[in-house]
Design brief:
Largest sheet: none
Order of helices and strands: HHH
Strand content: under 5%
Structural class: mainly alpha
Radius of gyration: 41 Å
Helix content: over 70%
Shape: elongated
Distance between the termini: 134 Å
Length: about 120
């Protein structure tokens, strides 16, 4: 009889351990489910912000492509490019002239007339 009682006690202990393990697993699953839910909520919020940002960017790019606003005018007006090319040529010519003048001053010196 003592063997039977001992076996029953061991079986009860095993059942209790199994129950505790099941409770731990259930608790972990509940926490994981809550974390997944929070993560899902955050992903939805980020996705909504991304959609809003992309929509705004799309509107801005379309406005620029249509020549609206300052940026659109700068991008779509060929006079800006042509003006920049002319300015670059003019600056190059001025730089070349200054280089010649600097060489001349270096070789011949600078004459000063003071009154």
């Amino acid at each position: 009889m003592s063997n039977v009682n001992s076996s029953v006690n061991r079986a009860n202990g095993a059942i209790d351990e199994f129950g505790n393990a099941a409770k731990s697993i259930n608790s972990a699953a509940t926490q994981a489910n809550a974390t997944v839910g929070e993560t899902r909520t955050q992903i939805v919020k980020v996705a909504e912000k991304l959609v809003t940002t992309l929509d705004s960017l799309d509107k801005a790019v379309n406005a620029m492509a249509q020549g609206k606003g300052t940026t659109g005018r700068l991008i779509n007006d060929p006079r800006l490019y042509d003006g920049l090319v002319d300015l670059t040529r003019s600056l190059k010519s001025t730089t070349d002239d200054l280089n010649v003048l600097m060489r001349k001053w270096k070789d011949e010196g600078v004459g000063l007339n003071l009154k």
